[in-house]
Design goal:
InterPro entries: LysR_HTH_N (IPR000847), LysR_subst-bd (IPR005119), WH-like_DNA-bd_sf (IPR036388), WH_DNA-bd_sf (IPR036390)
Shape: rod-shaped
Number of domains: 3
Distance between the termini: 61 Å
Keywords: DNA-binding, Transcription, Transcription regulation
Oligomer: single chain
Domain HTH lysR-type: 1-58
Number of strands: 13
Number of helices: 10
Family: Belongs to the LysR transcriptional regulatory family.
CATH class of the largest domain: Alpha Beta
Structural class: alpha/beta
Largest sheet: 7 strands, mixed
CATH topology of the largest domain: D-Maltodextrin-Binding Protein, domain 2
Protein name: LysR family transcriptional regulator
Radius of gyration: 31 Å
Length: 313
Amino acid sequence: MEMHQIRYFLAVCEDLNFTRAAEHCNVAQPSLTRAIKLLEEELGGVLFHRERNNTHLSELGRMVKPHLEQVYAQAEEAKRQAFDFAKLKKTTLKLGVMCTIQPDELVGLVSGLQARHPGIELEIVDANAADLENRLINGQLEVAIYCIPGQEPDERLHHMPLFREQFMIVVSPDHPLASRHVITPRDLTGERYLNRINCEFNGYAGPIWREHGFAGCDTVYRSERDDWILAMIAAGLGFGFMPKSCARHPMVVARPMVDPEIWRKVNLVTVRGRPYSPAVGALVREAMRAQWLGQPALALDLEKERQRMEELA
């Protein structure tokens, strides 16, 4: 059964005249008649009775008409949605965002996408980095923003760096470490630690600290939520370890960790070789256009450096 056969059938139902139906379908009448004949052969009976000037539906025609109307309407709706999707008139895009990235950092991306592509409905899914990577690989997300320090990048994924950010030691203003300009791992020995469960450096920063004189501390509180960690820090219950942009609370102070410095590099990640919707392309372009921590995306600097090296070669 071909879609044009259904369209011709419905046109004859509307006009009850083969000649007028052919004109409305912009097709020669013999072609319309042959299409109806083939449809009748497939359905196993006559669809119309043609009696001089009295063309009317047969019993079989009346029975199948609502079903074919539904098929045709659904096909037309599918075509319309596909057209809107291709033209970005109305499409939903799921963007995974690491839960330790502050919402303020996404404003430029989201506002730019809305201004230049108003047909994209952006759904932001927040989770820890490992969960986002699994969802991305499994096809539950098309694109994600995250970082996983301390491991080799998965070769199946394509990473476009957006920004780097230093990790800080965060304490209350009356904490003894608050008077220092910088803090080393050795300084944290014996202190009370407030653990961010979703921290990108969980299980990775500790060994680095120990290599630089850290002899251990007491973990007194754990939470998945940075705002709760900050509240506990402000209450003087211990220190936190977090990116500078996360340390936003009127009753805490953030000091850079040195010897060594620890930084996170956050990337826009997609799966290599996977066909993507136009919406993903639009989001990537906006991510490269947006400011991240007040600076252009790192990927732009890398591309400029690559072009410069090619010019020098």
